[in-house]
Amino acid sequence: MSRFVNQRVGALTPYVPGEQPQDRSYIKLNTNESPFPPSEAVAAAVAGEVDRLQLYSDPDCRALHRAAADYYGLEPEQILMTNGSDEILNFAFMAFGGPDRPFAFPTVTYGFYPVFAALNGVPCRQIPLTADLRVDPADYRGLGCNVVLANPNAPTGLAVTVDDVAAIAAANPNHVVVVDEAYIDFGGQTCLPLLAQYDNLLITRTFSKSFSLAGARLGFGMGHPDLIRDLNTVKFSTNPYNVNRMTMAAGQAALATADYYMDHCRQVAATRETTKAALREMGFTVTDSLANFLFAAHPAVGGAALYEQLKQRGILVRHFAQPAIENYNRITVGTNAQMQALLAALADILQGV
Ligand SMILES: Cc1ncc(COP(=O)(O)O)c(C=O)c1O
User: Fewest CB within 10 angstroms: 132, 246, 339, 349, which?
Assistant: First the structure.
């Protein structure tokens, strides 16, 4: 730390992203990326932007906002594209949080929420999960503060219903309820229909998972035009060209070929279910995840030890050293072949305990 750093940044514990190892090739099941490449239309669209890279991208992102509005049945004024969904989430903390405007979220959830809160000087109200790792919607009614819920939640994969979210939005009418739908295309019910009814609801999405574009960095928020205007104020006060030309083109081409991606999402969901059944056969406790990952613990081997032993066998999963979930590992659902390799490695490990 330098002697120049301010108090807030000096005190910050940054988010630790999942490993992106460059030393050897792993079966990478640790950051919930898609095992499938982008569509050919995306490759062509990105290539088509190269000879225009001397020009800034459209700061209003008009063509992509129009395409997303058409795809999701909204108006362009209800959408804001960002540099990954991490950016729209940070914008939400910046725009709606404050020293006297806390954000509530579960103790076990996406690890970036407390970091965004600390970065922006926003107090957190962290609410424990139930004993079976679920979000209890009743805990979020009438809190009198902003709320952010990942739905399905990460790393458990467990979801609440649209009715649950509606009740939370209705019970906190003077605060923003952010629903992070990063994993919604793999299962779960989207809260999009609630946007017509609740002006305090912000839904965030990402192209990183279901649209195979983690490396392009594209996410977005959907909500009432007034909420989107506030988030735009933050965007135009920080980085007006937050989405680059190649990524904008990739996003449009991805939406134009959405069937290709939704087919892959169905494949991932099917692989998730067969892998879950196989894990349970082996004695694992596995949550009923609706996301593109599984969350599993085994009574005979601790979470950290299992992570290490899989890594030694060339398979990367994600372990969180957090008391409530330290026996678990989060395992991204890959191809069927990758899952077979995982199950074989697990059988080998369990034989040795
Ligand atoms: C729940 C959740 N929200 C948001 C994100 C951020 O995704 P991105 O910034 O790649 O859009 C992630 C990434 O893993 C996530 O798990």
Answer: 132
Cis, bond preceding 123 (omega within 30 deg of 0): no
Q: Using CA atoms, how far apart are residues 180 and 204, in angstroms rounded to an integer? A: 5
CATH fold group of domain 17-36+259-351: Aspartate Aminotransferase, domain 1 (3.90.1150)
Burial class (CB in 10 A: 0-12, 13-18, 19+), 173: exposed
Residue 155 Cα: closest atom of ligand 1: 16
Which residues line the pocket of ligand 1, CB cutoff 6 A?
32, 84-86, 110, 150, 154, 180, 182, 206, 208, 214, 219
CATH fit for domain 40-256, picks 1.10.3720.10, 3.40.50.960, 3.30.160.20, 3.40.640.10: 3.40.640.10
Q: Which atom of ligand 1 is nearest to the CA of 206?
A: 11
Domains of the chain: which residue ranges? 17-36+259-351, 40-256
Whole-number Å distance, alpha carbon 115 to ligand 1 midpoint, is: 13
Interval between CA 236 and ligand 1 midpoint (Å)? 22
pTM of structure? 0.97
Instruction: Please provide the DSSP assignment of 173-196 as one string.
Output: TTS-EEEE-TTGGGSS---GGGGG
CA 207 to ligand 1: nearest atom: 11
How far is the centre of ligand 1, averaged over its atoms, from the C-alpha of 154 (Å)? 9
Provide the residue-wise pLDDT of the chain in tens; the chain has 353 residues: 999 999 999 999 999 988 888 877 899 999 999 999 999 999 999 999 999 999 999 999 999 999 999 999 999 999 999 999 999 999 999 999 999 999 999 999 999 999 999 999 999 999 999 999 999 999 999 899 999 999 999 999 999 999 999 999 999 999 999 999 999 999 999 999 999 999 999 999 999 999 999 999 999 999 999 999 999 999 999 999 999 999 999 999 999 999 999 999 999 999 999 999 999 999 999 999 999 999 999 999 999 999 999 999 999 999 999 999 999 999 999 999 999 999 999 999 999 88
On the CB side of 87, CA atoms within 13 Å amount to: 23
